Every structure is written in C-alpha cells, then in structure tokens.
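so ive been stuck on this for like two days lol. basically i have the seq below and the ligand is NAP, smiles is in there too. i just want the complex predicted, nothing fancy, no docking runs or whatever. if the output looks off dont worry ill sanity check it later, just need somthing to start from for the group meeting slides
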Amino acid sequence: MNILISGATSGIGQQLAKDYAAQGHRVYACGRNQEKLAELSASADTIETLQFDVTDRAACRTTLGAIDSLDIVILSAGVCEYIDDAKHFDADLVERVFAANFFGMVNCAEALTPNLNKGAKLVFIDSMSRLLPFTRAQAYGASKAATFYFAQSLGVDLKPHGIQVVTVSPGFVKTPMTDANDFAMPMRITVEQASASFRQQLAKGRSTIYFPRRFGFILRLLNKLPTALQLRIAQRMKD
Ligand SMILES: NC(=O)c1ccc[n+]([C@@H]2O[C@H](COP(=O)([O-])OP(=O)(O)OC[C@H]3O[C@@H](n4cnc5c(N)ncnc54)[C@H](OP(=O)(O)O)[C@@H]3O)[C@@H](O)[C@H]2O)c1
C-alpha cells in the first residue's frame, strides 16, 4: 500500500511510519524537522520524506497536490498548548493551536482529496479530549472537536466516492507531546501499543478508532451523561 503520514517526525506518526515501512508498505513521511526526516529516510528504502509546514496552505498544495495512488492518508501533525490563566487568556494561542491542529489537517486534506481513489482511507487524528470539557484544554479540545466534526461530515460526502474517512481519538500516549504534561495521565500507553492498536482497528475497517480502548470506553460513557453532570465532573478534576 501507499501511505502518507503527516507528523511523521515524532510520536504516534513516527511509530506508524516505521511500522508500516517495516511491513513493506511505501510511506510518505511528512514533517518540518529535516534531521528527523533524514533519519527516517535512512531507516528504510520504502520511506520517502516531504518537508513542509501544515499551516502553510500554499506549501501543502504544492507538496501534496501531485501525489496520487494513495491507499491511506494519516493526518497526525498537531500541537498542544494549554491555557493557564482563563481570565486573561490569549486568543493568539487559540489561533496557533487551530492553525496546526484544525487548519493544518484541512490544508492537507484539501490538497490530497481530489487524487484519492475509490477504496482510499482518509484518517484524521483528533483526541479523547473532545469528549469532556477538560480544564485548561479550551484551545486544544476545541481544535480536536472541530476536527472530529469536520472529518465526520466530510466522510458523509466522500462516501459516494468510495473514500472512507476515519477519526482516531487517542487517550494518553507517551510522546514528546505528553512528556510536557505536568498532570497525572491515566492509562497512558506507549507509541508501540498505540501504533499496533491503530493498525489493527484500521485494518478491520473501523471508521472511529479509540486507544487505549478501555479509556475510550470510559470517556465515551462520561460523554453520554447529562451536560450538568459532565460539567460537575470536569470541575472536580480541576479542584
Ligand atoms: N500523545 C498523546 O497522548 C495524544 C493524545 C491525543 C491526541 N494526540 C494527537 O496525536 C497527534 C500526534 O501527537 P504526538 O503525541 O505524536 O505528538 P508529537 O510527538 O509532539 O508529534 C507532533 C508531530 O506533529 C508535527 N507538526 C506539528 N506542527 C506542525 C506543523 N506546523 N507543520 C508540520 N508538522 C507539524 C511535528 O513535526 P515537526 O516537529 O517535524 O514539525 C511532529 O511530527 C497530534 O495530532 C495530537 O494532538 C496525541
């Protein structure tokens, strides 16, 4: 298969790039970090690298617009910034997070979708944070909720074209992104576990993927509670 992965220079995307290449698939690994891209390219003959910033729409169009015959596109590039002072929050921070997490994925999808053929899978990585109004996660959680909605709605309209849109909502996975967190991360898994679970669920044809699955089950249950109760739970997590 031909597989394109954004955010392939670190964390979940990097592990997926390595694992898919090890299985003999052709991988287009995308990122900004030239050193990490060179390492990836040297690690397997089947990895080709593409360097661009997902927030640069013109660069996405130029770099990705001519790529065809992709079987799987995995949009993983993203950032996490928390809001520490809700009373004086910084709208620039919110815009930065949306630029990478939401518009970054939209930019890549815009450039790639016209060349996707019947049977292709277009995968958006959001987050379980979209399931509950977590403290300090206003920008991050909102960007992931927007990504989830966008992806699901796009899936409705791409289905007649034979393109399956898939959303992936990870819980906590040990990566440089979560290494920066200063709070308890229940049920955190390794990137190897995340990659294995992702690849298994995708191969089964799932359109919505959660890992670790038990944490996903719990958060989806909480998400079904009345809003007032969800807010009480979120408040208690903060206190
Ligand atoms: N780790 C978790 O627990 C967790 C949980 C839920 C959801 N997620 C989501 O899963 C995805 C991967 O997260 P991760 O933990 O693997 O993060 P990570 O280790 O920090 O990696 C982030 C990746 O995104 C790329 N990236 C960021 N901004 C970019 C930009 N403007 N242009 C191009 N590439 C950019 C980085 O590439 P360069 O450094 O080369 O630019 C890097 O490859 C993210 O969307 C994240 O929100 C992660």
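Residues 7, 9-13, 31-33, 36, 53-55, 76-80, 100, 104, 125, 127, 170, 172-173, 175-178 surround NAP (CB under 6 Å). The first helix runs from residue 11 to 22.
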